[in-house]
Amino acid sequence: MSYVASGGEFNRDTNYITTRITADGRDGYPVESGRYRLVVARACPWANRTIIVRRLLGLEDTLSIGFCGPTHDQDSWTFDLDPGGVDPVLKIPRLKDAYLRRFPDYPKGITVPAIVDVGTGEVVTNDFAQMTLDFSTEWTEFHREGAPQLYPEPLRDEIDEVAQRIYTEVNNGVYRCGFAGSQESYEKAYDRLFTALDWLSDRLRNQRYLVGDTITEADVRLFTTLARFDPVYHGHFKCNRNKLSESPVLWAYARDLFQTPGFGDTTDFVQIKQHYYIVHSDINPTQIVPKGPDLANWLTPHGREALGGKPFGDGTPPGPTREGERVPADHSAG
């Protein structure tokens, strides 16, 4: 399967299944405890967002989670981590099965994260950007006591504005570098990416979080790209002006989040590296997965507490990661 853009510049297809699960059920899918299953892959940055937000808000008892393996074929993400390669709740071996159950002629790529209606086995949505916002705003009945306000109403316009730039220039910017099909498009993408990272460094130099003085949706969206930067994007995607660990402000910021419950404990560095270096065989034909980088430095002091702010505002950290949802110790920096 080819990932490099034959025309030069990589353009992501953003036409997702936009059905929403809401408190009033206006799209036919009301929020209900136990009705839906969130299907993710720890390797995927878009899916990693949903894992973080679900954990921060305490939705584990309400919304079950299924983990695909770190690699996929041209056809689908698969449940190869589960016994027999079958999801224990949905009883399917491939995520594609849930897509086809709702859309028999589904013409597009099978993506994670996806939410599946357990009763019908049909995919409801794969619109990752809206998904986490709805967790914050539509699923409030099931939030844990002390859940943080990740999308507080007074800050939504600013969060949206910052998140949009993070998406176009950073989250997608690294892919624009990695999947570029010409030298010219790569260099243009590279310049855009590092212009944005410099902007973020300036923004975070004197404030602990991106918007306001607590963690918000904007921080979640930036974190999943930063966590993958040195293990994958710096080398594999040629985003190599400098490593994250050589960017003092962003490196301290990323470590601050990593050491916050919900962030580092949902990050699986082994699966992250396996995914990119094995799946993108047109970029890495040998499919050899690099051994480094050393991860111990993720746990070093970051000093960002001096900027003030409280990670969870008036709320509290989430409790320990649930049994069966923990990242293996040898896959993390722990």
UniProtKB/TrEMBL annotation:
It comes from the Bacteria. Pfam families: GST_C_2 (PF13410), GST_N_2 (PF13409). Residues 152-279 form the GST C-terminal domain. Gene3D superfamilies: 1.20.1050.10, Glutaredoxin. Residues 322-334 have a biased composition (Basic and acidic residues). InterPro entries: Glutathione-S-Trfase_C-like, Glutathione-S-Trfase_C_sf, Glutathione_S-Trfase, Glutathione_S-Trfase_N, GST_Omega-like_C, GST_Omega/GSH, Thioredoxin-like_sf. Keywords: Transferase. Glutathione binds at W77. The active site is at C44, Y175. The record marks Y233, Y276 as: Lowers pKa of active site Cys. Residues 303-334 are annotated as: Disordered. One of its GO terms (cellular component) is cytoplasm. One of its GO terms (molecular function) is glutathione transferase activity. This is Putative glutathione S-transferase.
